[in-house]
Amino acid sequence: MTRTKIFFLATLLLLLTASALRAQHVRTAKLTEAEIEEVRENAIFPDLRVKAYTKFVEERAGGIKALTGRPKSAQRVLKLDSSLQDLTALMDELDSNLDQYSDRHSDIRKSLKTLTESTPRWLNILRSLPGESGFDLARKEAIESGEELADQANRLLKEQTEYFATHKDEKDQERGDPALQAEPK
């Protein structure tokens, strides 16, 4: 074998191993059947999809807030830990969607405005949650994920506002999916 082939195979093996290790640690959000259906229905409408995810995160954050008033117990700790991990996975999924829509210059300014108004509320819920050893790590990860989501949403809203101010003809258009673009007349 030539050195090039060996290098190629070694690089490929390294990438596959890294992907497998990363996949083991990625947690996906638990969505109800109705939520899954809503995400599917809005798959080609980025603004509506971001709004749906924002609604789901809002509901999860509200559930966490409701759990904080309950008396301390082992069951409460387990429920909070699970809820915090689910919230983190959901925020990470929303963050990934924002990356995709940003790359395509999808006009999601309306949903970004709602998202940027909501993230501080979610972060306040997470920060006001008293740390307990049973869910402290999940709480810290949720806060980090929420901060990253807030930063990205604010940055993206600013970028989109500037972009669509100079590209007025592209407002409300979808790019990246040829089936959605208007046919020339």
What keyword list fits this structure?
disordered C terminus, mainly alpha, 185 residues
Radius of gyration: 20 Å
The domain tally reads: 1
How much beta, percentage-wise? Answer: under 5%
Number of helices: 6
The strand count comes to 0
Give me the secondary-structure category: mainly alpha
What is the typical, i.e. mean, pLDDT?
83
How would a textbook summarize the main sheet? none
Low-confidence stretches: 18-25, 175-185
- Elements, N to C (H/E): HHHHHH
Distance N terminus to C terminus? 56 Å
What features would you describe in this structure?
- With 185 residues, the chain is mainly alpha-helical.
- It has one domain.
- It is built from six helices and no strands.
- The longest helix is centred in the C-terminal third of the chain and has 31 residues.
- The radius of gyration is 20 Å and the shape is globular.
- The N and C termini lie far apart (56 Å).
- The relative contact order is 0.12.
- The C terminus is likely disordered.
Task: Describe this structure in a few short sentences.
The protein is mainly α and 185 residues long. The protein has one domain (33-167). The protein has six helices and no strands.
Question: How would the blueprint of this fold be written?
Answer:
Blueprint: H1 3-25, H2 33-41, H3 46-68, H4 74-103, H5 109-128, H6 136-166
